[in-house]
Every structure is written in structure tokens, then in C-alpha cells.
Q: What sequence folds into this?
């Protein structure tokens, strides 16, 4: 009898240890950088192979890199202009600066200008922000968005006849182009020749994500999803948090799960195409403001507002 009870207890303990929800499946978040990266305000984070790039958004705006999973970091001082953003596409590392775009093919050892087609003038103080959307590289400069189709060698306008500005973000689904501006979200199904304004008056969209046939928008006043390529939008819900209106600044996905970074409340996760969201902050107390996020080698990494870089195994 005692032996049977012991076997039963062992079985129950095994079942309990295997039953894990989204928040404790991996033991929670862990800090990546043991030493401060400037002000620890990491506004941009990107990966090139085993190298991590992180931009400290302090006054100095220093770009750091690590080749040992964040154990040690070095500042990149060989970029001619002040860096304001970073993105990695294929084998190139791109930085947006106050003097246009620079490109590196050797993980930051050397940099070359990659700004042909961008209306950048010498001595300008306007930042040129590079970003990825649906595996394409874009640059935002003086309120307009540009795209490169040749790895940064040349740039062209990405929004066709749309002159509404400033333009904040863009998504090309392959059939539709969706653009967020400060005057609302616009969409086009003929490569930008004709534009229509979305039914929902979204004016503060920070990024788009395409998940299957669903378009998700993260904004200063919530998270929204669209089944019709941006023509209409529905407000996502937040489980167990009545009337929550998140200030969402970034979004990414891994497998079936989607992750959104909130600018004052850590990370939220959705397992149903962005319709509803729950907290994903185990191990971070208090939850930091999230400025950027990236998925690499089975981990989700986040850059935070004053608390450095964190990661969690997915």
C-alpha cells in the first residue's frame, strides 16, 4: 500500500512539473548584460549570426556589440555619424544615422555609406531610421519612408503617391501596402497608386506584423488586428485586465506565439493571432518599459528603458 502511494505521489509530481503556462515555461526572464551599456536604455537590438548589436539611446547614442552572448561588450566608435537605429538583413548590418545609412559586411569592423536615393544633405541633424518589416528593409527620413531592393545600394520611395506625413511605419503583405501616419492608417492594393484611409482612426501606430492573413498593429493606444489588409480594425483584449490600454511600441513572433513590448509594462503574449493578450513578465519585477525586441537562437530578447537587455527561452 505504501509503495502504491509513493508511486502515485511520484506520478503527480511529474505531471505538475510538466504542466507549465506561458509565463513559467522556461524559468522566466534573465538579464543579459552584467555591465551597464551607457544609460542602459536600449532602443534598438539586432543579431548578425552570433553577434548582438545594441544601441544605447542616451545623449551619446552609442552602439555596442557582443560576440559572447552578452558576457562582454565593446563600443563601436568607427561609424562616422551619430547612430539612431540598427537593423540586420541577410549578411549586412545597417545603421541609420543623422547622416543617412551606413552598411557593414563584416559585423561592424568597417562601414560604407549606403544612402543612394535618400535625400540626405551634408550637415543635416535629421535622423534616418532603418527598420525591418515583413523581411524587407526600410528607412524613414524627414517623415517619408524609403525601401531598398538591393541590400541598401539604392533606395526608392516606398509609399507611391501617398504624401500624407509624417509616415511612421509600413507593411507590404505582397498584395497590399499599409502605411501608418500621424493622420491615420492608409492602404493600397495597386502598389501605391491609389490610397484609402482605414475605417478606424489609428494615428499612433508604431509597428505592423503580418501573421498569416492577419495584420497586427501596435500603437500608443492599444493593439489592433485586421482581417482585410488594413481596411478595418478590431481592438485586441487583455485577459484579467479590465479597461487596459497599453502603450505598445514593438512586436515580433516565434512559432504560433506573438509578443508585444509595452513601453511601461514589460512583455505581453498572444497565442490566438493577436486577438487577446496576457502578461509574459515572470522574472522581471518590476516589469520594465520595452523599446525593442528580437528573436534569436530560441530566445526572445528585449531592449528596455533603463534596465538593459533581457532574454527568455521560448
A:
Amino acid at each position: 500500500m505504501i509503495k502504491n502511494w509513493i508511486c502515485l505521489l511520484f506520478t503527480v509530481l511529474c505531471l505538475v512539473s510538466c504542466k507549465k503556462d506561458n509565463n513559467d515555461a522556461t524559468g522566466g526572464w534573465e538579464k543579459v548584460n552584467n555591465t551597464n551599456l551607457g544609460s542602459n536604455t536600449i532602443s534598438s537590438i539586432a543579431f548578425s549570426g552570433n553577434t548582438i548589436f545594441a544601441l544605447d539611446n542616451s545623449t551619446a547614442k552609442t552602439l555596442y556589440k557582443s560576440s559572447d552572448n552578452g558576457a562582454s561588450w565593446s563600443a563601436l566608435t568607427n561609424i562616422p555619424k551619430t547612430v539612431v537605429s540598427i537593423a540586420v538583413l541577410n549578411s549586412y548590418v545597417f545603421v541609420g544615422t543623422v547622416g543617412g545609412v551606413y552598411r557593414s559586411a563584416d559585423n561592424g569592423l568597417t562601414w560604407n555609406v549606403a544612402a543612394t536615393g535618400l535625400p540626405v544633405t551634408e550637415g543635416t541633424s535629421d535622423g534616418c531610421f532603418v527598420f525591418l518589416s515583413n523581411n524587407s528593409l526600410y528607412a524613414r527620413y524627414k517623415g517619408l519612408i524609403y525601401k531598398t531592393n538591393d541590400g541598401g545600394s539604392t533606395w526608392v520611395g516606398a509609399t507611391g503617391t501617398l504624401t500624407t506625413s509624417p509616415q511612421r511605419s509600413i507593411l507590404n503583405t505582397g498584395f497590399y501596402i499599409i502605411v501608418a501616419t500621424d493622420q491615420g492608417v492608409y492602404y493600397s492594393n495597386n502598389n501605391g497608386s491609389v490610397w484609402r484611409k482605414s475605417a478606424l482612426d489609428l494615428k499612433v501606430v508604431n509597428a505592423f506584423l503580418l501573421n498569416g492573413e492577419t495584420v497586427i498593429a501596435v500603437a500608443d493606444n492599444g493593439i489592433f488586428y485586421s482581417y482585410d489588409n488594413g481596411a478595418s480594425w478590431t481592438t485586441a483584449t487583455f485577459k484579467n485586465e479590465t479597461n487596459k490600454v497599453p502603450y505598445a511600441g514593438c512586436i515580433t513572433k516565434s512559432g504560433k506565439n506573438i509578443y508585444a513590448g509595452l513601453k511601461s509594462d514589460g512583455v505581453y503574449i498572444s497565442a490566438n493571432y493577436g486577438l487577446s493578450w496576457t502578461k509574459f513578465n515572470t522574472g522581471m519585477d518590476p516589469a520594465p518599459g520595452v523599446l525593442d525586441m528580437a528573436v534569436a537562437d530560441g530566445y526572445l530578447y528585449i531592449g528596455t528603458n533603463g534596465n538593459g537587455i533581457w532574454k527568455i527561452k521560448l
Remarks:
- The CA atoms of residues 58 and 146 lie 26 Å apart.
- The longest strand covers residues 42-48.
- The two ends are 41 Å apart (CA to CA).
- Residues 85-155 form one domain.
